[in-house]
Design a protein that fits this description.
Elements: E1 2-7, E2 10-12, E3 18-26, E4 28-39, E5 46-52, E6 57-59, E7 67-72, E8 77-82, E9 91-101, E10 108-111, E11 115-119
Parallel strand pairs: 2-11
Antiparallel strand pairs: 1-3, 3-8, 4-5, 4-9, 5-6, 7-8, 9-10, 9-11
Length: 121
Amino acid sequence: QVQLVESGGGLVQPGGSLRLSCAASGSIFSIYAMGWYRQAPGKQRELVTTITSGGKTNYKDSVKGRFTISRDNAKNTAYLQMNSLKPEDTAVYYCNADLYTYGSSIIQTYWGQGTQVTVSS
């Protein structure tokens, strides 16, 4: 059993900052990649950023230079530092992990429950 728990969402004014955390726990052998997705009302879920176990990152164009993903492999935790937030960043943010569990040779994808980020004055 694997769980991903996000934290750090909330209400922030335009131009402000938030830091999201995603902690993975359970029967985890190793995590290949972790990422953040978001879903705004009436829109499809979209990829925001990912990071591999080796530290390779990928960002959605609209967040480049404003968002930074990082990862603590020892704690199975990923972070998303969001700066210069805009109203269009408002969404539910979901954490995602591609990982191996003990006893399995197949990468499986797990999701967190989501955390609301609202950017508004």
